[in-house]
Structures are given as C-alpha cells and as structure tokens.
From TrEMBL:
<feature type="binding site">
    <location>
        <position position="322"/>
    </location>
    <ligand>
        <name>ATP</name>
    </ligand>
</feature>
<keyword id="KW-0113">Calvin cycle</keyword>
<keyword id="KW-0150">Chloroplast</keyword>
<dbReference type="GO" id="GO:0016020">
    <property type="term" value="C:membrane"/>
</dbReference>
<keyword id="KW-0808">Transferase</keyword>
<comment type="similarity">
    <text>Belongs to the phosphoglycerate kinase family.</text>
</comment>
<protein>
    <recommendedName>
        <fullName>Phosphoglycerate kinase</fullName>
        <ecNumber>2.7.2.3</ecNumber>
    </recommendedName>
</protein>
<dbReference type="GO" id="GO:0009409">
    <property type="term" value="P:response to cold"/>
</dbReference>
<keyword id="KW-0809">Transit peptide</keyword>
<dbReference type="GO" id="GO:0006094">
    <property type="term" value="P:gluconeogenesis"/>
</dbReference>
<dbReference type="GO" id="GO:0005829">
    <property type="term" value="C:cytosol"/>
</dbReference>
<keyword id="KW-0067">ATP-binding</keyword>
<dbReference type="GO" id="GO:0043531">
    <property type="term" value="F:ADP binding"/>
</dbReference>
<feature type="binding site">
    <location>
        <position position="200"/>
    </location>
    <ligand>
        <name>ATP</name>
    </ligand>
</feature>
<dbReference type="GO" id="GO:0005524">
    <property type="term" value="F:ATP binding"/>
</dbReference>
<comment type="pathway">
    <text>Carbohydrate biosynthesis; Calvin cycle.</text>
</comment>
<dbReference type="GO" id="GO:0010319">
    <property type="term" value="C:stromule"/>
</dbReference>
Length: 400
C-alpha cells in the first residue's frame, strides 16, 4: 500500500487516529469544531469505500477516566457532518469494544472513548498499543495535531498494525508545512511572532535557512531591541536570550535574509484592555511603558515586503490581539495574507494563536492552508521529525 487511496478498504476494519481535541465550554458544548470538520474527508472516504471505521482520539489531558473528558459531546456533530449515525463505545479496548466492532456494518463508524483515559496511551505502552491494533486490519493516522507525540495510538500501534498510512489531513498538512516550506515559490517570507524568543528559537533558526524575508513581531521583539541597545521600558524581555538575539540577527545578515523588526510600536502603561496607549518609534520606549503591538509604520513596511512574495508562512501574533487596542498589527497581517491569497500567493498559517487571529478577522477561508496543529506544526517547522509520521509505511516528506 502506497497511500490511503491505493488501499483495499471494502469490508476492512480501519483504525483511524484523528485529533478531535476540540474546545468544550462548561456545558460540554463544542466551541470550535474545526478539528472535527478537518477529519471528515478521510472518514467519509473510508465510509464511501465500504470500510468499517474505528475512530480514535484524545480529548484534553485527563488523568484517568474523567467524565468531563468523555467524547460523548462529539457524537452529534460527527454524525451530522458525516450524515450517518455514529456509535460510541464507552471504552477504547476490551470486550464491549470488540463486540461493537464485530457488529459494525460496512460504512459504519464507531467512536472509541477517549484514548487518554488509559495512562498507557501517553506512555506508549506496547501492550496497550497491541490491544488497539488488534481491533483492526489497517491503520490510518490523520491526527496531525498529535503527530508530535509518540503515544500508543499515534506511534506504538504502527508496530502491530500494518499497513499504516497517512490520512488526507495529515498528508495535506505535510504537503504545506514541509513541501511548500522546503521548496517554496520565491520570494518566500516567514512572519514569526509570539511573546517569547525562547519558544520560537527553533522555528526562527530553521526558517532562516529557507526564507528570503523574515518579519518579526510580538513580545519577542523587545529582546531583539534590547540586544541592539534600545530602551524597552517595562516590555517583556528575556535577559538570558539577548546574546542569542544578536546571533540570530547576524545569522540573517550572513545568509542574506532580509530580517525586518518593527520600526514603531504601540506602548501601554499597563497590561490591560483599558490601558493608556500611544505609538512610539522603536527607539522611543520610555520607562514605565510596555510594547504590546507593532505600530502603523511597521505595518506599512511589512505590507510592502509581503507584496513582493510568492509564499508566506505565519506563526505567532504581532501583539496582544485579544485586547482590541493591541490587535491592529495582527489583524493587518491577517488581512494582508488574505489579500495575497486572492492574488495566488501561497499563504500558510502555522498553528495556534495565528489561526485564532485569522478566524477572528474572518479570513480563514481564503488562506491556502491553516494548520490544525499547534505544537505539531511548530515542531515540524523547527525541522523535527514527528514520531506519528515517521512511523508510517509511506515515503512521504517528513521534515522541512
Ligand atoms: C493539541 O491540542 O495541540 C493536540 O491535540 C495535542 O494535545 P496535547 O498537547 O495535550 O498532546
């Protein structure tokens, strides 16, 4: 079997590991069903080809069996999106599950209970993985969001269940996050934001090897400012990363990457939605003020740089966009990328907060690709090999 489309599926029991780790509110209502919708094409394909689908996911980080992490709230939405009644098991291994699998019709879907109710899942326990594997004839991993975890249902199971192939979502994520990034249409720009340099070092270093333009925003820029001798007031600074920031700037220069830091910032007198705020040049941050967004000049410069590109990848917000006063920079990037998408530029939103930003602005639908993985997309962009991907049989691109 090369991939899912060449697998013989009729009447086969297929264990599908998806990442249906969706947010639920206090009433157990799904507040964002993106991950469920993203998992549908693979499941639908399996149904349409007469497979018996055994669907598995984790939800949250439960310590043992915890009712509030049950998958029951997912069943109605899954059934609605698939157009069939999805059955749910109360466990993910054991006799009850085995008998439900035995009575599963071709084209039927059985949702197993939260696989993390067993501590053996995260321990990648071989005996547990073997029990999961024993339920099926074929393994499909479509859980991109969990592919950076070497867990029993993402990695261990492949040792006992062959063939093990990628689902359509996993494949698409890799096509964009690995394919488009390692072999981009140029010029290729990376926009990296977020509050801490420390959590983005790997991504910056890795993207510096690939991109032509690197735009930096978010709280991390103040560490770069300070490294350049600028005053940063009470902005967030990682003192132990000053040297690293200097090195990254030097590295960009040596590689001929055009690295742009914001030339102006929105500063506030406190970290609060109702703070007093003003726009100052990068060199004009006074004591008692903290930078919480990039300023209008920076937006203009970033937009001009982005106008020259053919591929853009974005990871991390430009400011504290949850607060309206400090959302303009992040929203400007989202809008610019939407505009560029319309002109045929490949636009990739790599996980986490930047996804929330494009959704807030209402432009998620026009991007070339929006990753469903936070941690997973970050690790992939850092150049790491994801355990859930490397464990599969196929020769798919595994690293940037
Ligand atoms: C995520 O939400 O990033 C994935 O579902 C992985 O969840 P985890 O961080 O709890 O492993």
């Amino acid at each position: 079997v090369g991939d899912l489309t060449s697998a013989d599926l009729k009447g086969k029991k297929v264990f599908v590991r998806a990442d249906l780790n969706v947010p639920l509110d206090d009433n157990q209502t799904i507040t964002d069903d993106t991950r469920i919708r993203a998992a549908i094409p693979t499941i639908k394909y399996l149904i349409d080809n007469g497979a018996k689908v055994i669907l598995s996911t984790h939800l949250g980080r439960p310590k043992g069996v915890t009712p509030k992490f049950s998958l029951a709230p997912l069943v109605p939405r899954l059934s609605e999106l698939l157009g069939i009644e999805v059955t749910k098991a109360d466990d993910c291994i054991g006799p009850e599950v085995e008998s439900l699998v035995a009575s599963l019709p071709e084209g039927g879907v059985l949702l197993l209970e939260n696989v993390r109710f067993y501590k053996e899942e995260e321990k990648n326990d071989p005996e547990f993985a073997k029990k999961l594997a024993s339920l099926a004839d074929l393994y499909v991993n479509d859980a991109f969001g969990t592919a950076h975890r070497a867990h029993a249902s993402t990695e261990g199971v492949t040792k006992f269940l062959k063939p093990s192939v990628a689902g359509f979502l996993l494949q698409k994520e890799l096509d964009y996050l690995v394919g488009a990034v390692s072999n981009p249409k140029r010029p290729f720009a990376a926009i990296v934001g977020g509050s801490k340099v420390s959590s983005k070092i790997g991504v910056i270093e890795s993207l510096l090897e690939k991109c032509d333009i690197l735009l930096l925003g978010g709280g991390m820029i103040f560490t770069f400012y300070k490294a350049q001798g600028l005053s940063v007031g009470s902005s967030l600074v990682e003192e132990d990363k000053l040297e690293l920031a200097t090195e990254l700037l030097a590295k960009a220069k040596a590689k001929g990457v055009s690295l742009l830091l914001p030339t102006d910032v929105v500063v506030a007198d406190k970290f609060a939605p109702d703070a007093n705020s003003k726009i100052v040049p990068a060199s004009g941050i006074e004591d008692g003020w903290m930078g919480l967004d990039i300023g209008p000049d920076s937006i203009k410069t970033f937009n001009e740089a982005l106008d020259t590109t053919q591929t853009v990848i974005w990871n991390g917000p430009m400011g504290v966009f949850e607060m309206e006063k400090f959302a303009a920079g992040t929203e400007a990037v989202a809008n610019k990328l939407a505009e560029l998408s319309g002109k045929g530029v490949t636009t990739i939103i790599g996980g986490g907060d930047s996804v929330a930003a494009v959704e807030k602005v209402g432009v998620a639908g026009v991007m070339s690709h929006i990753s469903t993985g936070g941690g997973a997309s970050l690790e992939l962009l850092e150049g790491k090999v994801l355990p859930g991907v490397i464990a599969l049989d196929e020769a798919i691109p595994v690293t940037v």
